[in-house]
Amino acid sequence: MSNVNFDAVHNFVSNRFANTPVAWDPFPYIYISSVFPPALFAQMRAHMPPKSNLKCAADVFKHHEPYKDRFVLRFSNDEDLQALPPNDRDFWIAFRQWLYSTEFATMVLGIFHAQMALRFPNTHFDINTDFGCNGMLARDYTNYALGPHTDHPRKLFTLLFYLPADDAFRHLGTSMYVPENPDFASDGDEGHYPYTGFNLHKVAGYKPNSMFGFFKTSHSFHGVEPITESNVQRDLLIYNFSSRELIGNLDLNCKK
Predict the structure, then answer these.
(1) 42-100 confidence digits (pLDDT tens)
(2) CA 201 – CA 184 distance, rounded (Å)
(3) What whole-number distance in Å separates Cα of residue 223 and Cα of residue 168?
(4) Structural domains of the chain, ranges and CATH numbers in brackets
(5) Gap between the Cα atoms of 6 and 77, Å rounded
(6) What is the dihedral of CA 48, 31, 190, 198, to 10 degrees?
(7) Dist. CA 29–CA 241, nearest whole Å
């Protein structure tokens, strides 16, 4: 069984979120260093699953563009979690319980309260019935790339927790893009776009124990520049939070 005190972890992470402002340019996002307690991050690194326990994303997400260089372990798939070595299995099951909790979702929704008010004006919703989350561990290898896109229309926000051992590949973080045509927007249904036609605005550094989170809008173009270095292993934890049916106003126009 995991011996992590997730109440203490939650208090630590909540404090890190509360003391980091949300940026609005080029779309609402937040970047946090030292997001987890150091001891927990060390455990996350120690319990990273072997490649044999990961599945190729091109096979798992058949409705997406094929990602032959990304491998994943989905928290929503109990069989995948149960197949982990016992110590790793117990740790990640306990971690999932905290990550999927109402308390965690409420905390992040509180950070994005201004964006929620713009996207869903005068809307009353129940966090337990109107929304849902999913999480996964992902590992990207050389040749992985992700063209600019804004995510599915029902997505509310995504949190990307970076899990490298050091910052040698800090330039391989998530990229934020701005279309060359300032009037171009996307609800996300169109999928991914070529890099041509977009300018690279900023890269969220792929550094140990850091997190890049962003709120879904019609301008939240993000992706990953092609990984050309050899022997790259890009580990991260992905948390997605989506509406079950509500879409709301996606054109927040990146303004306060």
Answers:
(1) 999 999 999 999 999 988 887 666 578 999 999 998 999 999 999 999 999 999 999 99
(2) 15
(3) 20
(4) 6-243 (2.60.120.620)
(5) 22
(6) -120
(7) 14
Q: Name the token pair of 190.
A: 């169109």
Q: Is the dihedral of CA 234, 254, 105, 79 positive or negative?
A: negative
Please write down the HEC assignment for all residues of the chain: CCCCCHHHHHHHHHHHHHCCCCECCCCCEEEECCCCCHHHHHHHHHCCCCHHHCEEHHHHCCCCCCCCCEEEEECCCHHHHHCCCHHHHHHHHHHHHHHCCHHHHHHHHHHCHHHHHHHCCCCCCCCCCCEEEEEEEEEEECCCCEEEECCCCCEEEEEEEECCCCCCCHHHCCEEEEECCCCCCCCCCCCCCCCCCEEEEEECCCCCCEEEEEECCCCCCEEECCCCCCCCEEEEEEEEEEECCCCCCCCCCCCC
The pairing of beta strand 70-74 with beta strand 55-56: antiparallel
pLDDT at residue 256 greater than cutoff 50 = no
CA dist 212 and 254 (Å) reads 17
Q: Which residues of 122-136 are buried (b: 16+ CB within 10 A; e: fewer)?
A: eeeeeeeeebbbebb
Packed helices 86-99 and 6-18: angle between N→C axes, nearest 10 degrees: 50
